[in-house]
Design a protein that fits this description.
48 strands, YdbH, YdbH domain-containing protein, six-stranded antiparallel β-barrel, transmembrane helix, two-stranded antiparallel ribbon, transmembrane, mainly beta, membrane
């Protein structure tokens, strides 16, 4: 039998063994708990036990998991015995003097993180049950990741629950930021069937934001409703400064926020069953309303400063959201540079005013908008040196994919002037009436009647247009874009361009007009139509420009009937002032080609004249037919005179018919120093022929010599024209006349004339010469001989100087049958004649053109005034 003492010893040993076993089990369980929660370090110091609870002077905890690492340091931790429970959270009242938390997220890997899910009501109820009835942290420091790497929160926290309402949680968090205090107050009440959240934010005691959210379970799924209100954001600067340190890089700065704004939002959503997530929100059904009022300019990144009001309402049906209301009245200032980069600086607006309001529906809509459009009226105006005004009705798709039909659109633009490249524009006025369509991939605009553009002046390096206007109707713009970037575009339709005055060095100032069709894209421009000038000139023009081939231009001149006037003389600045056509027809065509990267174009010009008649200087022209072709490339000019025929030219004596064929080639840089080749050059003169043998002349030489051949000049016709009383004769004259053209003018040196065999006859009957012969026996023989002189030889040396003096050294050999039985008689006669004066005197008749008569008279007056006076 065991004694009592022995029994007590056995029991003591068994109890000790049990305690050892329980201690070992607790130790290993504790290690497994630390390992399960990835706690690598847990240390405490200064543990104490009292009637009020358990105290720790310091507690250090470090956790390392897949989400990152967390370090927690608590000082003066007190766990109160009051309302202690044997179920979590065990201690219902916890107080800390200081709590420091540092969280560092794990390094990001290439795997995509799952979408975050919010706890459902069941999880929320469980989480609330684990919270103590009161928690107070007198000094809270939290080091968390932010845009600059790591940022720290400083403040205090207080949490309260009551046993009467264990599912209601009240939380107040005070955060210190610089010299201000941000106070977050939240009240959360919930169970497995419903949850309500009230959240308020105040800055230095001024309420800034309030949120009410309610979540309810229903047979169809959770119902979520809420309201967000910010009736007076008077401390927006403090909120912006606090948020900036968490969201912006250290060197980034936002413009200072204003001190007033109002925000409001409300929603009622029917969610699908399952864990609350962003995907469930997108697939919800319900209603959403939001509005904002910014009485002062508010800096919005990417939009400048925004002031005004904005409102939107949307309705969702199983994930398909439809906009039901959209209103805006916004003033935009300090617009971002990227908005304006495509515009000339002079067109940059100082501000924009945007208004969007409900409107009546458009009459006709495309099929993709017929059942899902939101009718709106939009107004956009600008202020600044240039003003724009856009007014339009809009049928906006109220759900994705977005699209918009434009109707009754009016756009106007006014600008005092700006520059585009090398062009200067002044006093721009534009007015466009349009309809259109826009979606995520394409744009179409149709300009209607009344659309026009006016410019007071358009000035380039060599061209100046005054009072330029462009008018169009039914012009269409079609474009393809992606993510806001233009991919392709095409503009086509009829258009009219007109300018009241076009100024260019090669043209006389006057008005021009173009009417035709326009087709343009990013690769090519095509213009086709008719160009006309105030001078009654009309041309059919086709212009094409593309990036690979450059510029191609073709023009067909409408046949000109010169009897009604000569438009070329009224248009071309270099038209010879002394050339005037008053009859005949002109036609022609031209083409121009300018390759990319070239400064000078290739030109081909063809001009045909038929039956031209008129005046050049003091000469009358009749029956002029011509075919001319001009080619020019980057190096050379080539002129091909296929044919030039003149029925008659009359500079005082008739010349013609005349024929000229030849070519002219020159370097484009030196057009006046080329090579002239004549295949045929001839003219009929007084029954004879004046011609040049085929040859070529280099115009780089200072003096050009043209060896003229005279064949068969009829003396009878010559003496008929020559104004000498009693002079007549017959015979044919041939000769060589080396005509020189140089800086000194026109000259003939050592020319030769001779009569063609067998000779001819001269008759000179003059009463004045007979009287001279009666007083001078030597002259009497001369006068008698010339009254019927039959010559076998007539030769003469010809010299013509630059002053118009013709010198003839004539040698005559022949006889007069009535004198000394027809013995041979030889004469050497020197004749001098002022040819310009002679021709002028021949022209001063009643039959001459009045213009020629005036020019002849003016020339004779100038010549007489320049001649030296006799003493």
């Amino acid at each position: 039998m065991i004694s009592r003492r022995s029994g007590l010893r056995i029991i003591s040993v068994l109890m000790l063994m049990l305690l050892v076993l329980l201690g070992g089990y607790s130790y290993f369980s504790w290690l497994r708990l630390l390992e399960r929660h990835a706690i690598h370090q847990l240390d405490w110091q200064g543990a104490s036990l009292s009637l009020t609870g358990i105290g720790l002077a310091r507690l250090d905890l470090e956790q390392r998991g897949s989400a990152g690492s967390t370090r927690l340091t608590a000082q003066d931790l007190h766990l109160g015995w009051q309302q202690f429970s044997l179920t979590p959270p065990f201690w219902q009242h916890i107080r800390l003097a200081r709590l420091a938390v540092a969280w560092q997220p794990a390094a990001a890997d290439n795997q995509q993180e799952p979408s975050p899910n919010a706890p459902d009501l069941q999880q929320l109820a469980v989480a609330l049950a684990w919270l103590p009835l009161s928690l107070r942290i007198e000094q809270l420091t939290a080091e968390l990741p932010c845009a600059s790497g790591s940022c720290t929160l400083h403040g205090d926290l207080q949490l309260n629950r009551t046993q009467a309402t264990p599912r209601t949680l009240e939380l107040q968090l005070n955060l210190q930021h610089r010299e201000q205090q941000l106070t977050w107050q939240a009240q959360l009440q919930g169970d497995a069937q419903a949850a309500d959240l009230q959240l308020n934010l105040a800055v230095d005691g001024h309420s800034q934001l309030s949120l009410h959210s309610s979540l309810r379970n229903s047979p169809a799924g959770p119902l979520w409703s809420g309201q967000l209100n910010a009736p007076d954001l008077s401390q927006a600067v403090a909120l912006q400064d606090w948020l900036s340190q968490w969201t912006l890089a250290p060197d980034a700065r936002l413009p200072s926020a204003p001190s007033a704004a109002q925000l409001a939002a409300s929603w009622q959503l029917q969610l699908t069953s399952g864990a609350l997530s962003l995907e469930r929100l997108r697939s919800a059904s319900g209603q959403f309303d939001a509005s904002a009022s910014l009485p002062e300019p508010w800096p919005i990144p990417g939009a400048g400063q925004v002031q005004g009001s904005f409102g939107i309402s949307a309705r969702g049906v199983t994930g398909q959201w439809f906009a039901e209301r959209l209103e805006a009245d916004l003033q935009l200032d300090r617009l971002p540079a990227q908005w304006l980069s495509a515009l000339p600086p002079a067109l940059h607006p100082d501000s924009l005013h945007l208004r969007i309001r409900p409107s009546s529906p458009l009459a006709e809509l495309p099929g993709n908008l017929a059942e899902r459009s939101l009718p709106l009226a939009i107004s956009l105006t600008s202020s600044g040196a240039s003003q724009l005004d856009l007014q339009a009705k809009l049928a906006l798709a109220n759900a994705p994919p977005w699209a918009a039909q434009l109707g009754n659109g009016q756009f106007s633009l006014s600008s005092p002037g700006f520059a585009v490249g090398d062009w200067q524009l002044r006093n721009l006025q534009a007015k466009l009436n349009f309809t259109g369509y826009l979606d995520s991939q394409q744009l179409r605009l149709d300009l209607s009647k009344g659309s026009q553009l006016e410019l007071g002046e358009l000035k380039g390096a060599e061209l100046r247009l005054l009072q330029l206007s462009a008018i169009t109707r039914d012009l269409q713009l079609q474009a393809q874009h992606q993510a806001g970037t233009l991919q392709t575009w095409r503009l086509h339709g009829p258009a009219t361009l007109a300018t009241q005055r076009l100024e260019h060095a090669t043209l006389k100032p006057q008005g021009w007009h173009w009417q035709g069709t326009l087709a343009a894209s990013q690769q090519q421009l095509d213009l086709s139509g008719k160009v006309s000038a105030d001078a009654d000139l009309q041309m059919a023009v086709q212009l094409q420009h593309n990036n690979s081939q450059g510029l191609q231009l073709k023009a067909q001149l409408t046949e000109i009937f010169l009897r009604a006037g000569n438009p070329l003389a009224k248009i071309l600045a270099d038209w010879p002032a002394l050339l005037d056509f008053n009859n005949g027809r002109l036609s022609g065509n031209a083409s121009l080609s300018l390759a990319p990267g070239r400064d000078s174009p290739d030109i081909l010009l063809k001009l045909n004249g038929k039956g031209l008649a008129g005046i050049y200087d003091r000469s009358e022209i009749n029956g002029l037919d011509t075919r001319l072709q001009l080619r020019a490339d980057r190096r050379q000019l080539y002129l091909d005179l296929t044919e030039l025929r003149v029925e008659q030219i009359d500079p005082g004596m008739p010349i013609g018919p005349a024929l000229l064929r030849g070519t002219y080639t020159a370097a484009r840089a030196q057009p006046g120093q080329g090579l002239l080749k004549l295949q045929q050059a001839q003219a009929a003169v007084m029954g004879g022929m004046l011609r040049l043998d085929p040859d070529q002349w280099d115009l780089q030489q200072s003096t050009l010599v043209f060896p003229l051949h005279l064949q068969g000049l009829d003396l009878n016709q010559l003496f008929t024209l020559y104004p000498a009383e009693g002079l007549a004769g017959s015979g044919l004259i041939d000769g060589q006349l080396p005509l020189s053209i140089g800086p000194a003018g026109i000259e003939i040196e050592q020319g030769q004339l001779h009569a063609r065999a067998p000779g001819g006859r001269l008759e000179f009957h003059s009463a004045r010469i007979r009287a001279l012969g009666r007083s001078n026996p030597a002259m009497q023989l001369v006068t008698q001989s010339l009254e019927n002189f039959q010559f076998t030889t007539l030769s003469s040396q010809v010299n013509y100087d630059r002053n118009g003096k013709l010198l003839l050294a004539v040698r005559l050999e022949g006889r007069n049958p009535a004198i000394e039985q027809g013995r041979p008689i030889h004469f050497n006669i020197n004749l001098e004649e002022d040819v310009p004066t002679l021709l002028a005197s021949l022209q001063l008749t009643d039959k001459v053109n009045e213009i020629i008569k005036q020019r002849v008279q003016q020339r004779m007056l100038r010549r007489n005034a320049a001649s030296p006076k006799e003493p």
